[in-house]
Design brief:
alpha+beta; 16% helix; Telomer_end-bd_POT1/Cdc13
């Protein structure tokens, strides 16, 4: 058993601690670090009654004070003990006794402490391989001394066929499948790893951490991993592994005969000599039981319509647009097909110009999309990469007779799609570097001719920029999406005609309102056809502060369809906060799939949660159920978008109606579906603008009422995205260039419809733009 009494004789323990344990300073405890072979020692200053948790697990809490640093500002820490260890400790621990804790997990508390205690607490249990030593003076006895005398075990590794739900274990496994770390829908990095071992059982692990360096450094199928303190849970009849506090990993090359060199996720770790035998045994087993692909494909071996992994060096990179990024790479071999060169301006391309020119026939352009862009932007020129699941496409431009090959890394993580950075110590990198050094490069041209060539290929010089503007003046900067049979009608004819009618026009945009483009975004109810301004953050903040005055109702916590967590802030107001995590199949989901409801949260807290979790709904307690706040506040937040309901058309229903979505096989948590079950008439974000259009015959004012079609930008996202706001401003500057004469303005082709608006006094004709979008080369 992992609780042991140490008799102290003349200041020395009768039985020494295991030799691999070293004392840790309380100040050095930090969540995410590896404290595997460390122990904490302190005096028991406070203990709480032994209790049982909701699932029947025994629970015992004590407070340890660091006797060596009594004058320190942080000199104590809470220790949470679970299971049989809790029962044993409750029988023998007394105030004032010295206690030693090893094999603990460090968990950061949600709020800062101001009572001298550490910002983290320790969690220990027998299942996690923890050990507790109680120091008692010779001659004293404890109630359960005879029941608690076994020495704490060293690390025990659990075979995959012996895993149990709810336990935290240590294990070894061979990588059968993996996804390189990627940014999850929250702020953490995520990596998915499927492991097997000689028991022929498979375990899929979902690993999360805010620091990508703390995730396993896996480079290929067949690598061997050692996981410490991974939590096991059962989902749909299968065991899954997820990260827990103190999770740590080592990764080894799975090739038989390769050096046994660990790739660690933390600075401090222990790897014993006997564990080398485990690695060798797993390598031999994997060689005949795991399907490991051969050498990665070289550029010289690619073909159209191929998915392949590429080990290469990065020589150039550039931003293409908001959802794609260019990587220029080479591996020393030449692609047998003509390759696509992504058009970017020379000033935007990072990399050494001389080398890029020398490698113009050997390097290829890989366009990466969506979730891979963030990592691609952070890559350093010269680093070595393994890019997984690149897609080659055969294509040809309209003015080309010969087809070319395009290289794409599509968005998402299916089939292990992603980018991995390889260290220079990696054997594949050493082999690639040696090969690259042997490649003879063509002599570079002189810099003057090179720069001239680069400028001629882009809009980097004044002449080409003027040609581009002249082209915009001659061609239409908008595209018609329907009604191609209609012919152009002069504006004078339109203003002299009766309504309602539809027209096709060719005109110039003389001016527009509002000039401050963010003011063009409104909220529209399709049911009552009302328009309203988007509430500002101060209104939302005021509503949240008002709702925080109502304390959460504990009788509504942790129902059959959601799990609740509560705490009280340590500030003067001592707000009570409750977060209710909606479950699926009685299980909590990953953050990016989870809807949560929050009571008592501030605006800042809710924004942070919305970036990490799929959906956030601010609520308050009533006597019988949770309910939405005033509809002046958003009823739902998803990432950067706040969703509002129409006060006039909505009939809010109890939050328990959400349980019908949670019971679906794969809950999507789409705003429209959430609004429907909650009785909310969803308001839609729209652009409302007035364009003054002119041609040779006259002028008219036409209104733009658009959700996202005209600008190809969602109105729901424009207020929280600087990038989209800049994109919209650039678009308007192209449609209506500031400071230019009317003759220099570009032409717009539009569809407009006329309609009548009647009031008690008169009938007035208005015009609205429809079925028109901004041309792609403008956007």
């Amino acid at each position: 058993m992992p609780v042991q009494l140490l008799k102290i004789i003349k200041g020395q323990s009768e039985i020494p601690l295991p030799s691999h344990l070293q004392k840790e300073n309380l100040q050095h405890l930090q969540e995410g670090r590896d404290h595997t072979n460390k122990y904490i020692q302190g005096i028991v200053t406070l203990s709480y009654p032994l209790t049982k948790l909701r699932d029947g697990t025994d629970f015992f809490k004590i407070v340890l004070q660091d006797s060596d640093n009594l004058c320190s500002q942080i000199n104590s820490i809470s220790v949470l003990i679970y299971g049989k260890m809790a029962e044993d400790c409750a029988k023998i621990i007394h105030h004032g006794e010295t206690m030693i804790v090893a094999g603990f997990k460090v968990i950061k508390l949600p709020t800062a402490r101001e009572d001298g205690r550490h910002e983290c607490h320790l969690e220990v249990s027998e299942e996690a391989g923890s050990a507790i030593y109680i120091c008692v003076k010779a001659g004293t006895t404890a109630a359960s001394e005879t029941a608690s005398v076994s020495v704490a075990p060293k690390y025990v590794y659990t075979p995959l066929n012996h895993l149990k739900d709810g336990t935290i274990v240590n294990l070894y496994g061979v990588v059968k499948f993996f996804k390189p770390p990627y940014i999850s829908k929250g702020t953490d990095y995520c990596s998915v790893v499927t492991l097997v071992d000689p028991s022929n059982v498979k375990l899929t692990c979902n690993l999360f951490n805010g620091n990508v360096d703390f995730l396993p450094k896996i480079y290929k199928v067949g690598d061997i991993v050692r996981f410490h303190r991974i939590k096991i849970r059962e989902y749909n009849g299968q065991m899954q592994g997820i990260t827990s506090g103190g999770f740590a990993s080592l990764t080894f090359d799975g090739t038989v005969g390769a050096p046994v060199v660990p790739r660690a996720s933390s600075r401090d770790y222990t790897f014993l000599d006997e564990e080398q035998k485990t690695i060798e045994e797993l390598r031999i087993w994997a060689a005949s039981n795991i399907s490991i692909s051969g050498p990665a494909t070289k550029l010289s071996g690619v073909e159209p319509m191929l998915f392949f992994d590429l080990t290469c060096q990065l020589v150039g990179k550039a931003k293409v647009d908001g959802s794609s990024f260019l990587l220029k790479v080479w591996d020393g071999t030449k692609c047998p097909y003509p390759t696509w060169k992504v058009p970017v301006e020379a000033k935007d391309l990072e990399g050494e110009k001389v080398l890029l020119h020398q490698l113009r026939d050997l390097s290829v352009d890989i366009l990466v999309y969506d979730n891979h862009v963030h990592l691609a932007e952070s890559l350093k020129i010269g680093c070595f990469l393994r890019i997984y699941s690149i897609h080659t496409k055969q294509a040809s431009a309209e003015n080309e007779d010969v087809s070319h090959i395009e290289f794409h890394l599509h968005g998402g993580t299916c089939y292990g799609r992603g980018i991995g950075v390889l260290p220079e110590s990696n054997p594949d990198v050493k082999e690639l570097k040696a090969f690259l050094e042997s490649v003879e490069l063509t002599e570079s041209q002189d810099m003057e001719s090179m720069c001239s060539m680069d400028m001629d290929s882009t809009f980097g010089n004044v002449t080409d920029l003027e040609l581009h503007l002249q082209r915009c003046q001659q061609l239409s900067v908008t595209v018609l999406t329907d009604h191609q049979d209609l012919s152009n009608t002069e504006l004078k004819t339109i203003t002299n005609s009766t309504a309602p009618q539809q027209y096709r026009i060719r005109a110039k945009l003389r001016t527009y309102k509002p000039q401050k483009l963010h003011q063009s975004v409104k909220l529209h109810c399709s049911k009552c056809n009302s328009l309203q301004e988007v509430p500002d953050r101060d209104d939302f903040d005021s509503i949240l502060r008002g709702s925080a005055s109502t304390a959460p109702n504990p009788e509504l916590h942790s129902t059959s369809w959601y799990e609740s967590v509560t705490w009280t802030t340590q500030d003067q107001k001592q707000r009570e906060i409750a977060i209710h995590f909606v479950k699926h199949d009685e299980m909590l989901q990953h953050p990016e799939d989870t809807l949560l409801m929050i009571e008592g949260g501030t605006l800042k807290e809710i924004w942070k949660l919305s970036k990490r979790f799929k959906c956030v709904i601010p609520v308050r307690s009533t006597e019988d159920d949770l309910e939405l706040l005033d509809l002046s506040a958003p009823f739902l937040l998803q990432r950067n978008v706040k969703y509002y309901g129409c006060k006039q058309c909505s009939t809010p229903k109890p939050m328990k109606n959400l349980s019908s979505i949670a019971a679906e096989q794969q809950p999507s948590w789409e705003p429209t579906e959430i609004a429907q079950v909650l009785g909310i008439e969803l308001l839609q974000y729209v652009f409302i603008m007035k364009f003054t259009l002119v041609d040779e015959t006259g002028a008219l004012n036409a209104y733009l009422f658009d959700y996202e079609k005209f600008f190809q930008i969602p109105a729901s996202e424009i207020l929280t995205s600087n990038f989209l706001q800049q994109k919209m401003q650039m678009t308007m500057d192209t449609l209506c260039p500031p400071g230019r004469k009317l003759g220099d303005l570009p032409w717009l082709e539009c569809f407009i419809r006329s309609y009548n608006v009647r009031d008690a006094m008169k009938n007035q004709v208005y015009y609205q733009i429809f079925d028109t979008t901004v041309a792609e080369d403008v956007v």
